[in-house]
Amino acid sequence: MNGIEKTWAWLKKRRDANRHPPAPHYWQIFAIVAANLVVLSLLIFDTAVGETRPAGPFARALGELITDFGSSGWILIASAILLFEGLSSFRLSRSVKRRFRALYAAQIGAYFFLAVALSGLSANVLKRVIGRARPSQFDEWGAFGLSPFSGSKFESFPSGHSTTVGAIFMVLILLLPRYRLAFILLALWMGFSRVMVSAHYPSDVIAGLSYGAWFSLLLANIFARYRLVFMPDAKGWPVPRLSLIPLQQLPPDPLGKPFRTGN
């Protein structure tokens, strides 16, 4: 078998060795609530924002200060570095404990990269197909103007920056649930900075944040089925398989065997 076939066979072995009940329908509930929030924003807030733009000088300055956090390039580079550094350390380390940690770090890097990259790519396809006019086009097109495949001025819904922010912070919430309130508040500020700089309507931001977060959650559930980064709890919710604990306290390998350096 070549490398790809070996990888698929390894993943299938992990999945088959860890059967568990289907995950609950939390992701469906998430999507329904988010869709209703988007519709409410469309009906109540977007026209008002379009009519009153631009934002005040303080709000705009604050938005410009924090909005670039939603650019995906930096997190993709960082997660790729984490992935390859983890794989390199796994191959080079002689300590079982360090190899285990390195492998876990590589899995986190892969999860981060896929969550941000795939959610961002799909959001960019959606925004081009939908073709919603940005707030800068409000005087001519209003808040509901659509012109698919007409360039960046018609790529407002969903917000790509907000999608990235939603994906990043859902990853952090799942990995570090103790700090979820802080992450939620930061995500809201980062996302709505796009409204402050008059680049998007509120519904664009809500849709982007929700889609990015939903995508990361769904991907975490897939990873949990293979015991990569996550494992399902008793209710099927993905929780971290956190490995940064003393080796003697480590759980057994997901295949039911003690962890060995050759795994």
Report on this structure.
The structure is a single chain. This protein is an all-alpha fold and 263 residues long. It has one domain (24-241). It is built from ten helices and two strands. It has helices at residues 3-16, 26-44, 46-52, 57-66, 73-92, 96-130, 138-141, 160-175, 180-196, 202-225, and strands at 230-232, 238-240. It has a two-stranded antiparallel sheet with strand order 1-2. A hairpin with a 5-residue loop joins strand 1 (230-232) and strand 2 (238-240). It is elongated. The two termini are 18 Å apart. The model is unreliable at 243-263 (pLDDT under 50).
Task: Using brief descriptors, characterize the structure shown.
mainly alpha; disordered C terminus; 63% helix; 263 residues; elongated; two-stranded antiparallel sheet; 2% strand
Topology:
Layout: H1 3-16, H2 26-44, H3 46-52, H4 57-66, H5 73-92, H6 96-130, H7 138-141, H8 160-175, H9 180-196, H10 202-225, E1 230-232, E2 238-240
Antiparallel strand pairs: 1-2
